[in-house]
Amino acid sequence: MTGITKTTEKNLMVFTGRANPELAEEVASMLGTGLVPTSAYDFANGEIYVRYEESVRGSDAFVIQSHTTPINEAIMEQLIMIDALKRASAKRITVVLPFYGYARQDKKHRGREPISARLMADLFKTAGANRLMAVDLHTAQIQGFFDGPVDHLMALPILADHVAEKYGHEKLAVVSPDAGRIKVAEQWSQRLGGAPLAFIHKTRDINRPNETVANRVVGEVKGRVCVLVDDMIDTGGTITKAADALMADGAAGVVIAATHAILSGPAIDRLKNCSASEVIVTNTLPIDEAHEFDKLTVLSIAPLISRAIQEVFEDGSVTSLFDGHA
Fold first, then answer.
1. Can you say whether the dihedral through the CA atoms of 269, 220, 190, 141 is positive or negative?
2. Angle at 266 between CA 110 and CA 263, to 5 degrees
3. 31 DSSP assignment
4. Which of 5, 31, 29, 1 is nearest to 309 (CA)?
5. pLDDT for the residue 179
6. Nearest to 138 by CA among 231, 260, 204
7. What integer pLDDT is reported at residue 7 of this predicted model?
8. Which of 78, 122, 166, 195 counts the most CB atoms within 10 A of its CB?
9. Cβ neighbours of residue 120 under 8 Å, at least 6 residues apart?
10. From start to end of 22-91, where are the E strands?
């Protein structure tokens, strides 16, 4: 008796929740496909319901969801989407996180605190995720919180190419807003032809989140256009104080470049009124019209995510997208 052999073609399917559908549509169209039609609605008490309108059996599924405000709803919706895929027999589920919620809670500063970034990874695993793909995690060690492959994408090439094109003729300096992000600043420096590095020495009161106390510039910034680089802008306090400190130290100008534009509360006013001439961000999080202002430049992260999805789907190399640095 002979067995039945069947080789099925790999089937790439892209899914999105309701947090940032525009980005997901852009990614899907770059991959030459469409988003899988999905019903999603909330019950009267806030519970979320999700159902896919076509078969996902045997698919290589990529679930894109930005953890935007209200963040816990975005996360819960994505977990429910993953569970639905697992129960509908998707072959492999890759969770695509343009912005990974709770990434700042990646260690304990004091006793009796959670490590919520690790909890997030456990939730994705339990829901049925086989793989994570994230853009500019707050710290690289979060990759180790998920028991499975993690693709850590960097927005640096997209942001740095824009800066090089616009300010490449100036004398530049790359500035990290704190000592912890010097490694990222070094990669920026390489990308910008070896521009000198500086960082802002700041003190923080651990009892008061989103607030920094004092700034002191360490490094030579006088007469240079300073590229102030960070992973996210939340309330904008840290980055705008850093920009003002650089100008006070004799910088010729300041350009802010950050991947994730959370832009909570007073962020817009602070950025509008600070001494930076341009604020460059990506669309990992949706930016509504009310949050747009003259200085703000939004670059699309979709080309990076679509290329990474293509490499994963074709069993290629994601590292090759970053000259071997990822």
1. negative
2. 75
3. T
4. 31
5. 79
6. 231
7. 67
8. 78
9. 75, 100, 101, 102, 145
10. 38-42, 48-52, 60-64
Intervals of the chain under pLDDT 70: 1-2, 7, 204-206, 210-214, 324-326
Tally: H helices and E strands in the chain:
8, 14
Amino acid letter at 295? K
Q: Which of 134, 146, 17 is CA-nearest to residue 81?
A: 17
Q: Which two tokens stand for residue 70?
A: 């209200």
Amino acid at 116: S
Closest listed residue to residue 249, CA positions, set 214, 212, 220, 213: 220
Sign for the CA dihedral angle at 265, 270, 276, 277 comes to positive
Distance in angstroms (rounded) separating the CA atoms of residues 51 and 89: 14
Contact (CB, 8 A) for 30 and 308: no
Q: Residue for token digits 């006070």?
A: 248
**Active site amino acids:** 202
Classify residue 228 by its DSSP letter.
Answer: E
d(CA 123, CA 185): 32
Cα distance between residue 180 and residue 282, in whole Å: 22
The whole-angstrom distance between residue 40's C-alpha and the CA centroid of its chain comes to 24
Task: Give me the phi and psi of 122, to 5 degrees please.
Answer: -65, -40
